[in-house]
Amino acid sequence: MVLTGNRGKAVQMETPDIAGEQRDRLKELFPEALTEGRVDLEKLRATLGDLVDERPERYTFTWAGKRDAIRLLQMPTRATLVPCREESVDFDETQHVFIEGDNLEVLKLLYKPYFGRVKMIYIDPPYNTGNDFIYPDNYADPLGVYLQLTGQQDAKGNLLTSNPETSGRYHSAWLSMMYPRLFLARQLLREDGLVFVSIDDQEVHNLRLLMNEVFGEENFVSQIVWQKVYGGGAKVKQVVGQHEYVLCYARAKDILGAFELPPDPEARKRYTEKDEKHSVRGPYFTQPLATTSMDLRPNLRFPIRWQGEEIWPEKQWQWSKERVERALADNELVFNRQGDKWSVRYKQYLYDEDGRERGSKLYSILIGPYTQEGTSEIKQFFGDGKVFPFPKPSSLIKYFASYAWDDEEAIILDFFAGSCPTAQAVLEFNREHGGNRRFIMVQLPEPTPDGSPARKAGYETIADIGKERIRRVIAGMRKEREGQLPLETRERPEDLGFKVFKLAPSNVRPWYGVEEDTPEAYARQMELFIDPLVDGWTPESVIYEVALKDRGFGLNCRIERLGRVRDPAQPDLQAPRDAVYRVTDPEREQSFVICLADAVPRPLVQLLELEQPDAFVCRDVALDDETAANLALQCRLKTI
Question: Fewer CB near the terminus (10 Å): N or C of the chain?
Fold first, then answer.
């Protein structure tokens, strides 16, 4: 709760009410089904033509703790993201982001600014083997648990623990951890977005059911089998396990259509023939038009007339009669006579009608890259492959990230970032294919084990390993380019940086109520909220919190200092918090001006006349009635 005066609208300092938004969407579709803000099931049933299923036994997927997981999802977060410049590389120039914090709280913070903006998500969550850490979700105070975990508050007991089978809710605890995170991830995806989730045999069946529920089984794309190792198995008693899975789901498969990965250089070798279309379509190779498919379709069985003869397929053609006639007219069929029989082949050109090269396809079975490559990468960057055990090879993730190859500004998200092979994959893919695809990495500062190679090397948490890997990847890529001219094909310089944010409590005091229900107790509490900002706040952290929660601006918004506006009637203003800032989100093409001074100087009104921002934000205690009235005439006034 935020207390403000009566001047200006209060800045929104909580994440959106997800349950309320869902009700609003239902209201848009069926306004008659809501009464006094609540869903009237009888009216909804009538609206749907009595299609509600009330049978006592019907298919459903549930587990112990599902209701609590939904409740946790719907609970707004009291956290914010604080910039950490000293751990970043080119903070003010880069578009890449690394966030250190519990990913559920972070996803809630990203919900408003990144809703429907992410092109591709890849995650490698805990596999629930019994030794994996399960995130310590607490339904009463998730932020409090995170603060204890990271040493920002006193801790009692183990805050991050494994999920042994003896817990009695072995699968349920894992599903409750995954559900709210996948739900929020879906909201961040674009309409043409895809999510890839790595998993093994332990939970693949449950994950498939869970993703069917979150994404809809109609949006299932593929269950990819990845052969991760070769050989081995000398100590295995039954079956040698050589593979894992990657589940792929679409945000909206019906509008996704066919998608392609980047062109395969090896595939180009097949295109050897030329015809009159070579200048536009490039070379071609031919493939049989007839098919041996056992799925008989009478409409695909018809004669093709050629040189006075009728050519029939043994079974059927791949194309419809109309498409075959168009190909005949466009000289895109090749006929060869073999004895008394004709063969018909169609031309497949390297480029489509618009001159765009054909891409490759995503296959349901991947042979490699192998896990040994992931370990080799860790050894390359840290000198010891055991600093982070069993990492995914960056080339595997690059293969999935290549889905975004035709979108040079795509956002790629990984909220179980680990040692950050996804960040490496995005950086390398940009160099190989051009463009400025951006990554957002999220990783819990999970402590490294005492006495482990990582701890001995000075890495206290998994997040520390991830950040250092990105730094070393960037350093290596910069070294490769030393002495070389900038790429002329790039509209912008190559982005070799990343900005670090950390999950932290809000800059605004939460309202906890009073211990004693007396006028004096309420008066004391109210005095604390004359200025609700917490002790030790900084302008930059408050600006980012307002931008994220109230304005819905992304983490790459620009913060420009407009200088100080001095009032001759007031003392000289010297503190950084007295400055005036303009905050702009290029994606939204919106901006606001913010001043966090103890008193808003009157000349600021003239500045706002020149800037014409969408809104002006200041502290409520900084306003007098006259200044508030003047500001409200210039723009939308919002107060903290």
Answer: N
